[in-house]
Design goal:
By secondary structure, this protein is of the alpha/beta class. It has three domains: 3-92, no CATH class; 118-202, no CATH class; 245-442, no CATH class. The chain is built from 21 helices and seven strands. The protein has helices at 3-10, 64-70, 72-78, 95-105, 118-130, 134-147, 150-160, 166-175, 182-186, 190-209, 216-224, 261-273, 277-280, 289-299, 311-323, 328-343, 346-354, 358-382, 386-393, 398-402, 416-433; strands at 30-33, 36-45, 51-55, 58-62, 88-90, 234-235, 241-242. A five-stranded mixed sheet has the order 1-2-4-3-5. The protein has a two-stranded antiparallel sheet with strand order 6-7. A hairpin with a 5-residue loop joins β6 (234-235) and β7 (241-242). The N and C termini lie far apart (63 Å).
Length: 442
């Protein structure tokens, strides 16, 4: 800390700044520097400290030599040992993060750590990674191994380079009973969401193959009358009720306008990759919907009893109608046909009702969009400027904003007219999906 900085802190409260700034009142528990007031930390402001750290409105005064001894970053930043170092104003760091970090450097107990939560250890991991404190980083990883949830580990692994967490997190998220919610998906990249969905599909396929086979008598009954698998709950003439299986899958529609050989070659490539469904939709026209349904059956498992990777299908439909409202009728037809194929099979009906099929993914996306729209409307009351309101409202809705074809991470707010136009297009799609003759969403 320089003599001029010490002079600023020791100056009488009634005195102004040298540049003419009016005097500011502050207590002995505060530090004033360059016109700003910082509250002294109640614990990490040591009388014998040599380094003043100004973080998020809080002043920390610690021994510079201690920080240098732990961190090569600070060793390079502060240079040779000094009795007093230049004060350091740190941006982008919260006081909670700094507290967690310093609690490890200055432990109050050698028997147990002062911090216990995943959030606090994540703060330690972030600052230890930022400042190259390798042993502290290893400690934070070890502690998070025990307390952090799989989703949190995956987010941290991507942000702070902890590769050993990635595959175990994928596996845990794929095996849990409930699929990713819209809010959870918004914290991940699209690639990670699709990877989890594909892994979940693979696990569920293996579970389906282990479902018990029908008895020989049941198979004989099925041969005698295949329609016995596709009845609804009805009442007999005597008034007693009987329960039957769901409606039979509708057959593939006859092809009226086929794809050209070149189109089919490109389309089959995109569908076979599994994650290029959005690009595949570019081949769809009203006349070629039947041909596209045949392509889905031949090059994907979207229509099969074990095809469970519908998250990307739902997202792709919303993104396309957001920018191409003329695609709404085709999108509704495709969604209706896929759902009819999914839910028409007995085994598949069990899986879709308990896990997630296209119907459930569509509803999740609708719920996410409605939440985003409500947040934006509320933010506009507080912030008349749309770009500011959108930045505030889209936090936590990044993945949902992508359904409108907008910047997923809110770093580039859309124009208000663009947002309204795309929202109107998607609302038209939702209205069509919820129509009485469709009823795919609520």
């Amino acid at each position: 800390m320089t003599d001029s900085d010490m002079h600023v802190m020791k100056r009488s409260r009634s005195q102004g700044e040298p540049d003419g700034t009016p005097p500011m009142k502050f207590s002995s528990a505060q530090v004033r520097r360059r016109g700003q007031v910082w509250s002294k930390h109640p614990y990490y402001y040591f009388p014998d400290g040599s380094l003043l750290l100004l973080v998020d409105g809080t002043a920390y005064c610690i021994q510079g030599s201690v920080l240098i001894g732990h961190s090569p970053y600070w060793r390079n930043a502060l240079g040779e040992p000094k009795e007093m170092y230049e004060p350091q104003a740190l941006s982008g760091i919260s006081w909670q993060e700094m507290d967690a970090f310093l609690s490890v450097i200055y432990p109050r107990s050698y028997e147990q750590h002062e911090i216990t939560s995943a959030e606090d250890w994540a703060s330690v991991l972030r600052l230890a990674s930022l400042w190259s404190v390798d042993d502290m980083r290893s400690l934070a990883i070890s502690q998070l191994d025990a307390v952090a949830a799989p989703l949190y580990k995956l987010v941290l692994a991507r942000a702070l380079d902890v590769p050993q967490w990635i595959e175990p997190a994928f596996d845990a998220l794929a095996r849990r009973q409930m699929p990713l919610s819209v809010e959870e998906a918004s914290a991940l990249t699209m690639e990670d969401v699709l990877h989890i969905s594909a892994k979940r599909e693979s696990i569920l396929k293996a579970q389906v193959t282990r479902l018990p086979a029908k008895s020989s008598s049941a198979r004989d009954d099925t041969r005698n009358d295949s329609r016995t698998l596709v009845r609804t709950r009805t009442k007999s003439s005597s008034g007693s009720s009987r329960t039957a299986a769901p409606t039979e899958k509708s057959p593939l529609p006859p092809i009226t306008v086929p794809f050209s050989r070149k189109e089919l070659g490109r389309l089959s490539t995109k569908l076979s990759k599994g994650y290029e469904f959005e690009d595949a939709l570019a081949f769809v026209t009203q006349e070629k919907i039947p041909a596209f349904c045949h392509a889905l059956a031949d090059f994907t498992d979207v229509l099969s009893a074990r095809g469970l990777n519908h998250l990307s299908s739902s997202h792709s439909l919303f993104k396309r109608v957001a920018t191409r409202p003329s695609f709404v009728p085709a999108a509704v037809k495709l969604a209706s046909f896929i759902v009819s194929q999914n839910e028409g099979d007995e085994a598949r009906q069990w899986l879709t009702s308990n896990l997630f099929g296209l119907r459930r993914c569509l509803q999740d996306d609708v719920n996410g969009l409605r939440s985003l729209w409500a947040s934006v409307n509320q933010a506009k009351i507080k912030y008349p400027d749309f770009s500011v309101a959108y930045k505030s409202a889209s936090r936590g809705h990044y993945f949902t904003a992508g359904l409108l074809g907008l910047d997923n991470y809110g770093t580039k707010p859309p124009r208000e007219n663009e947002y309204k136009e795309r929202s109107a297009n998607v609302r038209q799609f939702i209205s069509a999906l919820s129509a009485d003759n469709v009823r795919l969403v609520k």
